[in-house]
Structure formats: C-alpha cells, structure tokens
C-alpha cells in the first residue's frame, strides 16, 4: 500500500476509534460523556485540583470555547466549580467539587474500565509504536512551522 494511502487510513481510523469509543462510553455513571470524564480526569491531575480555563484547555487539547462548554455542562451537574480568580478578575478558575471527588472515589476503576476493552490484545511493542507515531503527530500539529516539511521516510 502506498504511504499516502496509509496516512489517509490512519487518519480515518483515528476518527473512527474516537467516535466508537465515545459511543461505547455513553452509559457512564451520572450521565457523563467520555469527553466530560476526560476533562475531569485532566483537572484532577492539576495541583490542588484547580486551574484556570487557559491551562485546562491546553492540557486537555481543546479550544477554550469547547472546554468552556464542557466545564459549563460539568458545573451544571455539580462536578466543577467556576469562579473568578482573586489575582485577575478576567480569569476563570475551575476546580473539582466534593461531588467530583466522591465520583472518583466511588468509580475508582472508571478510567481503567474505559481503557481495558479498547486495548485488549494490544502488545507492548504495538503500544510503543502507536505512542511514537501519535507523539510525532501531536508535535507536528502543535508546531505550525512543520507544515509542508517533507517526511523523513520519503
């Protein structure tokens, strides 16, 4: 198969995996979506379980607008609290609520339960190759100067 066809196939499969994973995760506790769960998990990894919208967007890999929508939905469900920063009134701070902390305590294996079935039968060597490929793709997407640069394999 030609390299260009392989690239198209990889891109197509990334979207397909993401969409199928989202569909299969529709039955999460508390009516949470996969993206909402992943955002909560990202927020949980910040010191003090609190950060601003810009840092959360960057770490999550979404636009401020998309992350704000997720945060608003999670705030409506009582999982996060939004408040203005004491240091800069223009800055929105997001933090986990007690409900979110309880959710993670009660659903300790929720993240693993989402991951395990998807990676069943995938060996260490395949994971290493996938990680290397995805890290390179992310770096290329984050670095606009890479556009139009020829592949090292070509």
Main attributes of the structure:
mainly alpha; Arc Repressor Mutant, subunit A; 7 helices; globular; three-stranded antiparallel sheet; 154 residues
SSE diagram, text form:
Elements lengths: L2 H22 L9 H11 L5 E3 H8 L3 H13 L3 E5 L7 E5 L1 H9 L3 H6 L8 H19 L12
Antiparallel strand pairs: 1-3, 2-3
Helix pairs in contact: 2-4, 3-4
Fraction of residues in helices?
55-70%
User: What class, by secondary structure content?
Assistant: mainly alpha
CATH superfamily caption of the domain at 23-109: Winged helix-like DNA-binding domain superfamily/Winged helix DNA-binding domain
Average predicted local confidence, pLDDT = 85
Concise structural overview:
With 154 residues, the chain is mostly helical. The protein has helices at residues 3-24, 34-44, 53-60, 64-76, 98-106, 110-115, 124-142; strands at residues 50-52, 80-84, 92-96.
Notes on the protein architecture:
This protein is 57% helix and 8% strand. With 154 residues, it is mainly α. The protein has a domain of 87 residues: Orthogonal Bundle (Arc Repressor Mutant, subunit A), CATH 1.10.10.10. The chain has a three-stranded antiparallel beta sheet. A hairpin with a 7-residue loop joins strand 2 and strand 3. Helix 3 packs across helix 4. The model has no long low-confidence stretch (mean pLDDT 85).
